[in-house]
Amino acid sequence: MNHGIAIGKVSQASGVKVTTVRFYEQIGLLAAPPRTDGGRRTYDLKDIERLTFIRHSRELGFEIDQIRTLLELQDRPGQSCADADTIAKARLVEVKAKIASLTALQAELERMVDGCSHGRVESCRVIEILADHGKCKHHLHDA
Amino acid sequence: MNHGIAIGKVSQASGVKVTTVRFYEQIGLLAAPPRTDGGRRTYDLKDIERLTFIRHSRELGFEIDQIRTLLELQDRPGQSCADADTIAKARLVEVKAKIASLTALQAELERMVDGCSHGRVESCRVIEILADHGKCKHHLHDA
DNA sequence: GCTTGCTCCTATAGTCGCTGGAGGATGTAC
DNA sequence: GTACATCCTCCAGCGACTATAGGAGCAAGC
Q1: Cα–Cα distance between B61 and A142 in angstroms, integer?
Q2: Is A80 buried (19+), middle (13-18) or exposed (0-12) by CB count in 10 A?
Q3: Chain C bases under 7 Å from protein CB?
Q4: ipTM of the assembly?
Q5: Domain residue spans in chain A?
């Protein structure tokens, strides 16, 4: 019996799926852990922390490469946190833009749905708006 | 000289990239057009309309399969538009949920960025919040 | 007619961040 | 000892494109 946390426990504790933990190891986001005699991965508490960090970052919409940078920063606490700040700020700008875009989108979808008189397709506002971009007031970016 | 619109022109007119037009043909979203003697695709105005419809639908965040349904509906104008209405309503629900999620995200990112004193990583609010989910007030879903 | 240079063709592989399945080995509880 | 959960590797697939290689077509200028 080896003393180390099995991948399933780590998965449960961190909220990252087992397959995803292995995937993170594969892409070098998480160091390859030691193995049992039988070849099973054994983790420790640090790994759970790291995976929690990754999961939370992913939930905040950071890309893997950005998380890589953030993790490197975390490993070197004496360094300036300017990079972390820059990454977070850039993400904030993205999020604001996306909210604006989705709000415009919401308005257009509401217009479509409200205008639909539940009749035939030939007079359907939904189809009509999709077909004719001229009827669209808002300029939408990637939604 | 054949009379038909070249893929480049269709792309320009519809706002769909040339490679994407070919991709749509490949997945059966757009019918394969006739060709010139030299083997080049020749389109007509209907195709531009269809591609514009597709592009606009994609901008509104509809999935390819949903667009397939919407296009089929458009082709049979006598039919009830209930399906189109259902698809649009479902998308509206998704968009509203996403806006809510992103707004929570925005708040958390602002908290991170505002709290960062631009010092060392060891006292960086950004890193700290990412590391410790307990400091996160909001429960975030997919952002 | 010939060359320049743009547009177009096919086919295939890559992007991102996972997710799922096959087929088998290991560990544990009774 | 045996049933069962968990783990292993490898590889394929998702959605919606995007990019690259290596050509062929075609219009305009000289």
Answers
A1: 8
A2: middle
A3: 7-10, 16-21, 25-28
A4: 0.80
A5: 1-79, 81-143
